[in-house]
Design a protein that fits this description.
Elements: E1 2-5, E2 8-11, H1 17-24, E3 34-39, E4 45-53, E5 56-62, H2 70-77, E6 88-91, E7 95-101, E8 112-114, E9 118-124, E10 127-136, E11 140-142, E12 151-157, H3 159-164, E13 171-178, E14 183-188, E15 200-202, E16 205-209, H4 214-223, E17 228-230, E18 233-234, E19 238-241, E20 261-265, E21 274-277, E22 287-295, H5 297-302, E23 308-314, H6 325-334, E24 338-343, E25 350-355, H7 359-365, E26 367-373, E27 378-383, H8 389-399, E28 407-415, E29 419-422, E30 446-450, E31 460-463, E32 480-485, H9 491-498, E33 505-510
Parallel strand pairs: 1-15, 16-23, 24-26, 27-33
Antiparallel strand pairs: 1-2, 3-14, 3-15, 4-5, 4-13, 5-12, 6-7, 7-10, 8-11, 9-10, 9-12, 16-22, 17-23, 18-19, 19-21, 20-21, 20-22, 25-26, 27-32, 28-29, 28-33, 29-31, 30-31, 30-32
Length: about 500
Amino acid sequence: MKVIFNGEPREVKSKRLGDIIKELDGAYKPGCIISVVSEKKGGKLKNEFSLKTTKGEARIKIAGEKKTGAVSLFRKIYKDFHNEHGKIGWISEDITAIGSIGTSLSVEKREHEYKKWDVFFGFGGFDPGMTFLMISKRAHEAAYGTGADALIGKLTRGRSIITELDGSDKIEAITPLVTQAERVGFATTDLNTEIKEGVEISTVAKIKLSREAPMSAEHFLSLTRDDVFRIDDHTHTYIASESLKGLSLPLETIQYRSENCMSVRNKGAERGKVYAYRESRLPNPSHNVFGEIIQGGDLIKYAKAGDTVYTLTEPKWMMVVGKTQKEAEAFFDHEEIEQVREGNEDDNAVVVDQVPALTMEIMERGTVRTVGVKAEAVLDVKLFHKEAPKTVWYFKKVTGLITRPIGHLKVHFAVPGMLVLFEGNANEAGTLVPENLPIEGVKMGVLGVTNMSRPNRGMMGIRLEDNKEYGPTGETPNGANIVLSIPSLSASTRSFLSRLKEGDVIYVKEKH
């Protein structure tokens, strides 16, 4: 039978969803949702069209067919208003004109009355060979070479966007909007689902990231480092992930949030929250628009809180921290990016930093510096997510582990063979309530954070010996939260930690 699989028509023998994925060797990540959509035959187009512009989306509500003869022509030729013929060719206080294209409409030279936001066909120089799609921005009378039957409809959304268009803008696409009843679908993780002839199956959402929003794009790349977009919130307008909520971002790209675009909140209590849109929203200075879903939009449409969506990005995440210098070289060779090794340049040295850090900057420059250290300087640690969630968030944020595979700790003070204290952030620790306290003493190899009950809140420390009286930061047991342990604290690792002195830096990697 015939199906559409991730946007491409395919012929399959199987009827079970899981078997179809195997048969086609399709992109799929276990546990992620799959959308299954069918389209009813014979449905009529909704009398509304979407105008996707370089500044956002606008919409045209079509006039009744009995009122104007231009509607049937528009339905035939709307696709022609794109690329060279989709440029903004004419702007005045009264109208914005798109085009032009050639038509066989009749010429009429007398003036006509146009209402605000009327959409109609008009000519340049009374020549049908220069037919423009015109939008009236205010009530006026004028002669555009066409008659009353040239009216197409009215602009209903995106009026501010049309007003802001200039000669550098264009219409990227005009598409008819169909009624919900014509497309019926659902999302599932059940691979035993029976599939019928002609349905559309989507297993992956492909997202094109904007180079104009490098920090926001990096935020999303870090969020989906395992190619999974986890849904924590949903409404009829959007789905959203709160995994990195709480991280601040600079103001980047403020624009119309059209259907299938993606944004991240840049300030406020919801800062760091990532949104994918099911319906269009107006621009908001608190939202950076950083990408667009170019395939798999049905996954966004049918997802709900608790679901996970398999995502692939364009470009891919240019993050090699955690890899060896040799592995980083192979990665960047494949991406045609020049790598310059720094620090420990040995093949088996672990990369703990890269410059530039942002994917978009690496793409722009075409070169990247990778800083390596000996493997012993990177400690595998087990974080106590369940026992100390707030402390884990603090630790990951101040060490950089929240957005990178490897975090760093700078030594503040050390007592050889006893404990090592690391720099923290008192402001970030201001709400660090006591949790996972070492009431019965601490074992060597556990790291704690001084909580908000003590003046030195935020200070981090690790014990190199067992102690029943004081925690890892030198505080009494109720003053420090235990956040992690080093599962494989070998003699060589203890020796390495004992040699640390003020100003030294060590690196941590979460062991899963």
